[in-house]
Known about the structure:
The chain has helices spanning 3-9, 49-61, 73-84, 99-107, 124-130, 153-162, 213-226, 232-242, 245-264, 283-289, 306-313, 345-350, 367-378, and strands at 66-70, 90-94, 115-119, 135-141, 166-170, 188-192, 206-210, 269-273, 296-301, 320-321, 331-333, 358-361. By secondary structure, the chain is of the alpha/beta class.
Amino acid sequence: MKEQTKIIHSIPSDPLTGxxxxxxxxxxxxxxxxxxxxxGFDYSRTNNPTxxxxxxxxxxxxxxxxxxxxxxxxxxxxxxxxxxxxxxxEIVAIDxxxxxxxxxxxxxxxxxxxxxxxxxxQDLAELEKAFTPQTKLxxxxxxxxxxxxxxxxxxxxxxxxxxGALLGVDNTFATPASQNPLKLGxxxxxxxxxxxxGGHSDLIAGLVVTSSPExxxxxKFIQNASGNIxxxxxxxxVIRGIETLHLRMKQHALNAFEVARFLETHPKVKNVYYPxxxxxxxxxxxKKQQRYFGGIVSxxxxxxxxxxxxxxxTSTKLFKLAESLGGVKSLCCHPASMTHKSIPAEMRQQSGIxxxxxxxxxxxxxxxxxVADLAQALQNV
Length: 381
């Protein structure tokens, strides 16, 4: 079955009424026939029919067996870490990591005796050297936020398992329409569903998928115990967004490619980061494991200053300056002063986040108009 067909028909109609749209079960509790005798639902923190529909859906789309929905992408990451690690354990994480994940790993979990190492996971030899007996989790994004590094998921899964560690993959940028890390050997996949899965910049949500019954049991326990759940209404919004995911990702990728090609030839642009360009260092790896190259393009300026970047991001008309990504409307962001500000400047520079780096979330407008908007903004640099 083709992906778009699979997506649409993985969303169930309501068995009670036949409603083609999943109902929003906006209820906190459920009537029981007798103590502990009910229709599978007793309290919405533990389980809710709308949230369950989303959790079942993302499990199917990621080719997993168990899905879980959380109040944010960071809540999803937090639950995975609590599931896998104890004091004294170690995370080996990609160096070009989302600022929120860095803050969680280095400023929260480090206080509880968890050690974190950051390495360039594009370099398998460097990754191999990072393992110790305490390494229990390898954490990657592919593509990364914001420099679009591509890691070989299958090769890293083999390395992690060789050293007795699990592999977690943040699949937010690629989405299950493009890439399925569990099929490549990953143990757990997370999404900030705030981004492409929701697709309309109108919700905050996180998702986790695994095929391990043992991990699933622990994740479910922590989800219920901590209460980091997604509401019924936001669950419904994510389901509605997923209905058009495949079509949107096709167009995001087409538009992003046109934008990347334009930037690659512009005299004021120093570097362009987009896996769909043959100039990308891991273009061939991206071709192997992704069906689309995604809707994010990052680039740096030859005038490598925060002032130059600020001048550009405040001059665009169609690209709106804002946090987040993955919506219908195009957005631009200056990671060094916005999404990745919590990362120390030296570490940002080492991972490729220069002072002039700009991240574009290429939307669904006409590509010609987006290119024209960037062209006029670059005149101000």
